[in-house]
Design a protein that fits this description.
133 residues, mainly beta, three-stranded antiparallel beta sheet, 1 helix, 13 strands
Length: 133
């Protein structure tokens, strides 16, 4: 057993997010483990770009209110305690509701043989997409 130092909080890159987003790494598995856990904090109306994960993604909402959408599906509301699973290669976005902050834990796995390529990023979610129009 060991006590791990807390990595610094990172600002979410503008290439991946609309609005202010902050990321706190919690856990990164070492080979052969593949799990990664991040705490992601979204300011009101902040959101990811469209993206997908090679092996899927699980979100656990810890506070606030948020939104999530899979490509072609209706926007769903997120509240504390909600658990959402995006299946492998499922294009989706998620973020905070327009008038609330939202924090979730992002739980992903990455393939053994790649570094930081477990995600594919697409276009930013437009204001019209975000508002469901």
């Amino acid at each position: 057993m060991g006590h791990l130092p807390k990595p610094p909080t990172m600002k979410g890159p503008a290439e991946w997010f609309t609005g202010e987003v902050w990321i706190d790494p919690i856990f990164q598995g070492k080979d052969p483990a593949r799990a990664q856990v991040l705490a992601v904090r979204f300011t009101p109306a902040a959101r990811t770009a469209w993206h997908c994960h090679v092996l899927g993604q699980t979100l656990y909402v810890t506070e606030g209110r948020g939104l999530i959408q899979s490509r072609g599906a209706a926007i769903a509301e997120l509240r504390p305690g909600d658990i959402v699973r995006a299946e492998p290669e499922e294009w989706h976005w998620h973020g905070a509701a327009a008038d609330h902050f939202m924090t979730h834990l992002s739980i992903t796995e990455a393939p053994y043989d790649t570094s930081n390529s477990e995600m594919t990023w697409g276009a930013h979610v437009t204001d019209a997409e975000y508002s469901g129009h």
